[in-house]
Design a protein that fits this description.
Helix content is 33%, strand content 22%. It has 209 residues and is an alpha/beta fold. Helix 1 links the parallel strand 1 and strand 2. Helix 1 crosses helix 5 and helix 3 packs across helix 5. It binds pyroglutamic acid.
């Protein structure tokens, strides 16, 4: 039986960016007791398979995958993952899938199963700005969020039994915004909150456009 309670994933650099803060945060947390960290390749076929395998192997209580959102100014907790890849740029293996599912025959979308409003509050309490986001995009991050939620929901299980694994995704702004230490502090606060929170905060959010 695995003693891993938390799985954190980051991504390697991509798209001409020299580094990826999600990799640096995952590396900073690699010695955290009871937490497993992995750095995923920005390679659609490999990262989708890997996150599913990791969720099935560890069956942690909480999965928080991380990635870089180069255009964002705050940490963003993602609410929805869609079963769609539409890559604006090739992945690191040179593949550029357009309008294909992450998992053929999977449902159209998954909502995060993490208490993202409580996690946002926990991040604010350590002095860092965070927001909820309604789209993880259609690139590698959305694909990993989708595949992680699919595995946590039982898709691809090879063993019997229910899982209580809750999963989700946070996009990090460029490293200049929070630094590695700040981003790591926010991630730790968010994960500790998720471990301790059964029911999400009921507070309004969202825009009326
Ligand atoms: N960001 C990309 C993929 C890897 C990463 O760190 C994304 O937002 O999809």
């Amino acid at each position: 039986m695995s003693t891993t309670t938390v799985l954190i994933t980051g991504f390697e650099p991509f798209g001409g960016h020299a580094s990826n803060p999600s990799l640096e945060v995952a590396t900073a947390l690699q010695d955290h007791p009871g937490w497993e960290t992995e750095v995923l390749p920005v390679d659609f076929s490999r990262c989708v398979r890997l996150i599913g395998d990791l969720v099935r192997r560890y069956r942690p209580q909480v999965v928080l995958s991380l990635g870089l959102a180069p255009g964002r100014e705050r940490l963003g907790l993602e609410r929805v993952a869609v079963n769609l890849i539409d890559a604006r740029i090739p992945d690191n293996a040179g593949e550029q899938p357009v309008d294909v599912p992450v998992i053929p025959a999977g449902p159209s979308a998954y909502f995060t199963t993490l208490p993202v409003k409580a996690m946002r509050r926990a991040i604010h309490e350590v002095g860092i700005e965070a927001e909820l986001s309604l789209s993880a995009g259609t690139y590698g991050c959305n694909a990993v969020m989708y595949a992680g939620l699919h595995a946590a929901a039982g898709g691809g299980w090879r063993v019997e039994g229910p899982t209580t694994t809750r999963a989700g995704f946070a996009h990090l702004p460029p490293v200049e915004v929070l630094g590695v230490a700040g981003a790591t502090r926010a991630v730790v606060a968010a994960v500790e909150c998720a471990l301790a929170t059964e029911t999400d905060d009921v507070v309004p959010d969202g825009a009326v456009d």
